[in-house]
Design a protein that fits this description.
heterodimer, A: mainly alpha, 3 helices, 76% helix, elongated, B: 74% helix, 1% strand
Chain lengths: 103, 490
């Protein structure tokens, strides 16, 4: 009996999450929310990797996920440190007010 | 049979030096001078450069289950990146804030981060497995994010780091999604396997998505239009010695990655990516030059100029065969020499605290410090592309390659752009030649320190050598291109 969810569904979910991340990155005004949007994008990619790894029966995709999670953790450490330093310097985390330099 | 460890020897050396610098920094008393650490880091990078040159004598081959490959291509870029990082470290020893200032106790981390960044950039040029590509790219990016925000006491420093970090991670996510798609289409992430499996990929949609997403990621890293918006802000807010590094070394590594992707992973899509490079090159140089024209801040102006130079570099990709690889390799070397040089002098003349920031602030520099001013003129001449400098020959070579590929209109746009670019470079040169009303005494080059003299000297010699005797570098660039042709059968 075949009751598994088709792989395409996972890929569609992954694409939807990635798109949500991109939209969030573009429209959110708080640095923390923007940062969370990036994490969402990375995790959407992880979902794709796992799906493809399952489809190809290749463990490589799952290994990739571990590395992505590790790098995301390193990025979070640096990102949060930068957010703290910006809050100390400017007293705000709203991107509209972080505009000393204009294009 | 070469032991695997020899294939990553420069990276190993750099990692050990970085750790050594960090540990020494931690064991030093908080008040003692950190200058020594800079010299240690510089010597370490020199050792890595020697290791890279030695790697060039090894037969080309892969290591660690086919994830890393050393050949003439990786050697060329290893040597170039180590050279840039060496100059940037030498430059930083004397231009960072003096001992006993509030920022002084971070200097050890600063040098360690520069060395760790170099690990990632070097690894990126020899990686032939997309997992290693991703890790290497992140090692180099995360180090440069931190370096960009080094002046955390100022308002602009953290802002620059923030913008660089957010847009950088955003682009990395795109690259990563592209890698996932390529994995989905072929079931592997090894560059050579992908290239052979791609023609029989099970879904063209995945292949096209992979290509598009990865291009977004890489074009961001080389700051080509329309993914260039971060560049001026980051260059303005970051300390000038850091800009000397990050306007060149990560960009060189990113161009190596672009070559790897275009010629290694997606040679199949050549008919698709050639017009794409045409458009991106044309847009980058036009946008970069037009925006640079109306900048008052020198660092912002040079940021837009670097976008324009990314455009000239991309122009070469419209050439045929493996010729573009050689042209891009040579251009990155010349670009690195002149850009590191001008930012080195900006950090001396403009100062760490940026007493000089706008074009008009540079009035009278030619009289108050003739040597620094004269060398700045040399680098400006090279950036314009006047003969007998590296900038001229690089541009000439890039444009001839494009001509051979039949991109005549693009070359015409490039030549028009070179004319526009001359206007803003000359504006800075003219400002330096005008007598200044307020006679602010500029620091002489030699009074700053031996590190700066070495750094500027290397950059100036390299700029001149690439313009007058380009033979050696050109041969190395051709060998790099050939190693690609031999392996890919391009």
């Amino acid at each position: 009996m075949n009751t598994t969810v088709p792989a395409e569904w996972y890929l569609i979910l992954s694409a939807a999450l990635f798109t949500l991340g991109v939209v969030g990155f573009l429209i959110k005004r708080s640095l923390i929310s923007i940062f969370m949007s990036i994490e969402l994008m990375l995790n959407a990619v992880n979902l794709s990797f796992v799906t493809f790894a399952h489809e190809w029966h290749a463990v490589k995709g799952q290994i990739f996920v571990f590395f992505v999670m590790m790098v995301a953790a390193a990025e979070a450490a640096v990102g949060l440190a930068i957010i703290i330093s910006i809050f100390r310097a400017r007293g705000t985390l709203t991107v509209d007010q972080i505009d000393l330099m204009k294009l | 049979m070469t032991p695997d460890i020899f294939r990553i020897l420069p990276e190993v050396v750099l990692t050990l030096v970085g750790v050594l610098v960090m540990l020494t920094d931690a064991s030093m008393s908080p008040k003692s001078s950190r200058r020594l650490l800079g010299w240690v880091a510089a010597l370490g990078v020199l050792a890595a450069l020697a290791a890279s040159l030695w790697q060039g004598t090894l037969p080309a081959g892969t290591a660690f289950y086919g994830t890393v490959q050393t050949d003439a291509f990786s050697t060329f870029f290893h040597v170039l990146i180590c050279g840039i990082v060496l100059v940037a470290i030498l430059l930083s020893i004397d231009t960072l804030p003096p001992d006993r200032s509030p920022e002084q106790h971070h200097v050890g981390e600063y040098f360690a981060l520069m060395v760790f960044g170099a690990v990632g950039m070097c690894l990126l040029t020899s990686a032939v497995e997309l997992l290693v590509v991703f890790i290497a790219l992140e090692i180099s990016s995360i180090s440069t994010y931190v370096l960009a925000g080094y002046r955390k006491q100022t308002g602009k420093g953290p802002e620059a780091a923030m913008k660089y970090f957010l847009l950088g991670s955003f682009a990395t996510a795109f690259l990563l999604y592209g890698i996932a798609m390529v994995f989905g289409a072929t079931g592997t992430t090894e560059v050579r396997e992908i290239a052979t499996l791609l023609p029989a990929a099970r879904s063209h949609l995945f292949v096209l998505l992979a290509f598009g997403l990865m291009m977004v990621g890489v074009l961001f890293k080389v700051s080509a239009a329309p993914f260039h918006v971060w560049t001026p802000d980051v260059y303005e807010g970051a300390p000038t010695p850091v800009v000397a590094l990050m306007s060149t070394a990560p960009k060189v590594a990113a161009f190596a990655l672009l070559i790897r992707l275009l010629y290694g992973v997606f040679p199949l899509l050549h008919p698709l990516w050639m017009p794409l490079m045409w458009v991106v090159a044309a847009v980058s140089m036009t946008v970069g030059n037009l925006a640079a024209l109306r900048q008052q801040n020198v660092k912002r102006m040079l940021a837009y100029s670097s976008i324009a130079h990314a455009g000239y570099l991309l122009t070469a990709f419209t050439g045929s065969g493996t010729e573009p690889i050689a042209a891009v390799g040579f251009y990155t070397a010349a670009y690195a020499a002149m850009n590191v040089g001008i930012f080195a002098l900006l950090s001396v003349v403009g100062g760490y605290d940026e007493r000089r920031s706008s074009v008009t602030d540079y009035r009278g520099v030619l009289y108050s410090s003739p040597l620094s001013g004269g060398l700045m003129l040399l680098f400006l001449i090279s950036l314009i592309g006047i003969p007998f400098t590296g900038g001229f020959f690089a541009k000439f070579y890039s444009f001839t390659t494009a001509m051979q590929g039949g991109a005549g209109w693009l070359v015409l746009i490039g030549l028009l752009n070179s004319g526009i670019a001359a206007a803003y470079y000359l504006r800075l040169a003219l400002s330096m030649a005008l007598p200044s009303a307020a006679s602010a005494k500029a620091q002489g080059l030699s009074s700053v320190g031996a590190g700066v003299v070495l750094a500027v000297g290397i950059a100036a010699l390299a700029t001149l050598a690439l313009g007058i005797l380009p033979g050696h570098v050109l041969d190395a660039a051709h060998a790099a291109a050939q190693s690609f042709a031999a392996i890919r059968g391009f």
